[in-house]
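Quick start: read one record
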Amino acid sequence: MTVKKKFLWWACLAAVLYVALNYHFIFFGRRVKILKKSQPTLEYTFFSVHGKKIRKILDIDPLREDGIGELLVEMGMLTEERLEQYMLKYEYEEDEYY
């Protein structure tokens, strides 16, 4: 293998790792939406909402903090008002915890 090919393979591998660390891929059936992560991690890189209740989806802190609620509104699975109610509840629970 030539040096150029090795470099190209390493560059591709680095690009895939960068994307996996910095973006969530949220599956809505056959549709996929991309959500930017707040910090590089491999947690919840691939996540399907199929068959999950909205409450269970929003219970996942990294996804909620990165904006999955707005994505659920955009996809028509949740209303703005209901999202605000959920978010207030989570803020209240966090305040009680500390």
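The two ends are 57 Å apart (CA to CA).
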